[in-house]
Amino acid sequence: MREIVQRGLWFEEFEPDVVYRHSPGRTVTEADNVLFTTLTMNPQALHLDEPWSAAQDFGGRLVNSMFTLSTLVGLSVGQLTQGTIVANLGFGAVSFPTPVRHGDTLVAESRLVSKRLSRSRPGQGVVVLEHTGRNQHDEVVAVAERSVMMRCRPAEA
């Protein structure tokens, strides 16, 4: 019997000029925002206090941008890095051009910015990805450049 195990891409499988679209999307709830914000010790009223936030520039609470970033990366895991990542190396530019609100549904896509074999870790390579998140109105809500250390395809694969 043949067995198929879900995994991310090996270093060699990342291709230039390809857009990797990730699904399913994720609808963000008020509970998500409040839980994430309080778990991360962020007392920002913009995420927690509706009357105060209603009187501010955006007219109501906004979803914590770190939740947005985490979800953006998380949406890519099953397709790109599940079981094939060695380590998350860091982030370059991150932007949040449109705020996320309770009830918004986030979808994500990624593209390869660059890749190179590791000079110090045989069998591994550094991949730089650009993740883009959009809401249900197709508005860009987040863009993040992320560097990851990926495994090369094992000989038996």
UniProtKB/TrEMBL annotation:
The cross-references to SUPFAM superfamilies, in alphabetical order and at most eight, read: Thioesterase/thiol ester dehydrase-isomerase (SSF54637)
InterPro entries attached to this UniProt entry: HotDog_dom_sf (IPR029069), MaoC-like_dom (IPR002539), MCH/BMMD (IPR052342)
* Matches recorded under CDD domains: FkbR2 (cd03451)
- The domain of life for this entry's organism is Bacteria
**Coiled-coil stretches:** none
Q: Which residues form the signal peptide?
A: none
Please list the residue ranges annotated as the MaoC-like domain.
16-132
Q: Name one Pfam family in it.
A: MaoC_dehydratas
Q: Which PANTHER family match?
A: BETA-METHYLMALYL-COA DEHYDRATASE, MONOAMINE OXIDASE-RELATED
Q: Which family does it belong to?
A: Belongs to the enoyl-CoA hydratase/isomerase family.
Q: What is this protein called?
A: MaoC family dehydratase
Its ancestry begins with: Bacteria, Bacillati, Actinomycetota, Actinomycetes, Nakamurellales
